[in-house]
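Lay summary

Proteins are chains of building blocks that fold into shapes. Our project writes down both the chain and a compact code for its shape. Here are two examples, one after the other.
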Amino acid sequence: MGGGFEHFILINSLVCKERCSYVFLRIEGDSYNRLVKILRIRNPRKGEKLRRARFVREASVREVRQMMENMVKGFLWERNFNVKVSRSQLDVERGILTVEYVADKPISDIRGLGASVAQFLHLRVEFVFIPRQKYAAKVGWLGRCGLELCCHVWLKNPPSITQDMARRQYLFAAPDKLTGACGRLLCCLAYEMPFYESMATKVPKLNSIINTDRGKAKVVEVNVVAGYYVLKYEDGKKEKRTIEGTP
């Protein structure tokens, strides 16, 4: 597989359980077996000089599919496609290799790659886009909390998550710290939002200026989980205050 067309003289007979198209041959002079696709068998022409080959065994569909999938991965890496191949399926009868790739969004240029790979593998190659979220839900990785992903265990319709939710929960970390295995913002933000909405009525906004019994102060830190916020006065002194209604 992965080469051009060539004729060989078969020095023994083909032994296949069914009509086989993929077989392993040991070509004279080689120290390894080659996977080849048989297109047709004919009698040698007079005076024709061909390399000799010995039939080793019939190749299974799994072996052929795995080798083709590895070749496709090589093409993807060579062309700098930032995708993951989740799985592939081979229809030997129809001559179609279906490759599922995982990415943030469909890649239009990948169709052109399919034509190039098809010429190399001598069959039709179809690429199918799988969203990262769908793939993560299917595989079931562990989340940042150490438990299996909610979308894999029970969550069938993930909620819509926005950057504003993270801001209102006082989360200002780098985006990669707030994203899950699927590349989206963590679904946890939606579950915790009601708590932060209720607390917003009890705590001043971060970086706001408020009037206190000691004069004006700036809110420099808010920690609603721990139940406190920190004020900084004009003289530079800081004060830690407890949020009302928290232990």
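And here is the second example, written the same way.
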Amino acid sequence: MAYILGIESSCDDTSAAVLKDDFLLSNFIASQDVHKKYGGVVPEWASRAHLRNIVPVVDVALRNAGIARKDLSAIAFTRGPGLLGSLLVGVSFAKAMGAALDIPIIEVNHLEGHVLSHFIRYEKSEQSVPEFPFLCLLVSGGHTQILRVNSPFDFLLIGSTIDDSAGETLDKAAKIMSLPYPGGPVIDKLAREGNAFEFSFSKPQIPEYNYSFSGLKTSFLYFLRDRLKEDSAFIEKHKANLAASLQKAVIDILMEKLIVAAKDTDIKQIAIAGGVSANSLLRTEILKGEQLYGWRTFIPPLSFTTDNAAMIAIAGYFKYRNGIFTSLDVAPYARS
């Protein structure tokens, strides 16, 4: 039996979680609302907030788990990718606490944590887990990838965006429409009231399993520019339809490549992960794959779609079980 403390500080949320083996005991997150008024995360403010939050957040996670520091077996932390100043706080805290308690520390790639969140067990859940190998569509504000996951330690990147990510596209479109930050969830909410077939935008023709969203973003921008010349209130009048049409275009692009990848690899275990995996249309389309293609699908709980330490702890648990530890001279990295 092992108690794993997970620490996540890659962006603007400070999070700590405790697992008992692969079973979740606590998962606490301190968010930073100050960034909303500026339409994006201000890195310097984010790192300063992590400094204020890290000690109380870890303390709450331990108390909620009902254990003391001395009970911990290891500390898993996000090494990257992310904002360097934010990562430095979590990495430094994990190294100091690990040294003080004389327990191993375990570095985790933030993206791998998202994928492995499907293996977290939690109270009163009978959730099934993917069988290896499985395909995972990892979609977030910074990344859009199709991964073949052969084991907890073997991830093969078979498709990726060559420019913008799906989440970035939704967020920037929301900003163009003067919607609140973060824009992705606002687009999703508005889209439920709109007609997804009202407007159409250009879709890329990219080889293999790769993605591109810059053309869609430009098409959306130019479309609005032309319509606003005719009617300055065009966005306000058609906000829901614009959101629904854009969201459909993004999800269609994501699904087209995933369907081809699943067919070519003959893998029917299909998972989604990352912030955009909370999108209601993407969840609906993934589930359709069970009837249309015989997939067995895995959709994370909403609490595991955003940045959280539980996903870091589960990745750390797999490494702990296999004796994969990190030295104290480790440094964070901003990009994979």
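What can we say about the second shape? Residues 91 and 227 are 49 Å apart (CA to CA).
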